[in-house]
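Thread title: Can someone regenerate the structure for this chain?

I was given the following input by a collaborator and told the matching structure tokens would be attached. They weren't. Posting the sequence so someone can regenerate them.
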Amino acid sequence: MAAGLDKIRVDCGIPVSFSDEVLVAAQAAAAKPFGSDHIDRTDRRFVTLDPASSVDLDQAFAIEAAGDDIILQYAIADVGWFVQPGDALDVEAFERAVTVYLPDRRATLYPPLLSEGAASLLPNVDRPAVVFTVRVGVDGITSLDGAERAIVRNQAKLAYDAVAPADLPTGFDELNRRIRLAEDARGAPRVEFPEQEIDRLDDGRFVLRFRPRLESEEQNAALSLACNLAIGEALYQAGTGLFRVMPDVDERRYRKLRHSARAFGLVWPNDVPLATFERSLPRHDPRTSAFLIAVRRAAGGAGYAPFDPEHRPWHSAVAATYAQATAPLRRLQDRYVIEAALAVANGRSVPEAILAGFDRLPKAMSQGDQRANQAERQALDLAEAVVLSGREGEIFEAVVVDEGEWGVEVQISDPAVLARMNARRVDPGDDLRVRLVVADPVRRHIEFERVS
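Best answer:
Regenerated them for you:
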């Protein structure tokens, strides 16, 4: 597995180290003192909520009431304080675009000295941040009330799998209820698609799982969504910005999804919108996974687009205008969006270097995302072959989740494998029994044949 992952990094062009020039620049940036325009906000109780092992902490939050409204204070790591457009760190970031996560280690967007150290909102230390003040009404509609550079202190590093309600700020549940209410009103699905994941065990072995998302993850994602929606609308109204976009499912594909639902044995009433139907499905049923995969493919790929006065940017998964600004340690474009939003919120012109970046970023992000997706897919192929190696001839229960000219794709629950194979007279949703014919870790290849 380790040798295979190293080969994937080479094959996909995933960088494994930083040049001396970039490391020297990171050391200088990490030593940079706080600026005079960083306001001391260490008296606020900011907390983070992430996977327990995370050290690249982008976001911290505090919540307070303001009459009938709720105020979300969302602190984002101030990467723009350390990295300037055109410097060595920025040039390297344009080459990488995103942090690439593989099972053994990650290829970070910035040197770990910054992304896991000086710029990360680690607990119980003062850190520079951009704090966005997001007002959330009783209807869940968000607006950007302000933004400032500040010094914050993360007072509790909370973990998804261990957080208790008492650990969270007062108003956390009500804020999430309002965000969900607004999503329902927009008809936004925001259903998280099933994920096939590789876990490394304490003894060094790797296993495959289909991992359900925890409620705490969904709730934390809702806070990020609220901030990104508010920033996206503020930038659009100001006539600037870079937006995350994804087209709606067109009518032809919509009809195909209805056929797929029937094939999966799912009852989709004619008067129920797709978003409502998606949310009603049982989360751990393999047929739900199959249908959600079909929805993801039907919607087409997401991308980035700079402001265009002729077209309001649209993201079908959130059913709104949307900008990404909450993960600058892991995603290049967020740093540029943050700087634009900071300027707009304070009535200033967006710096020319930021505007110029908006023209270059869609291509850089597309290339970075493609590289990361390719590496992650190949890592899954490798893990499937490693986990199944030596089990040739065994028979597994499977569910058909997709079909095309290439054959059918089947989902096996244990181990958590998605595989393509040839099978006739089957439809998505059908149960199959399949035999493992080949499991070759060197070629990252598995092959099944239908038994019944």
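The chain has twelve helices and 17 strands.
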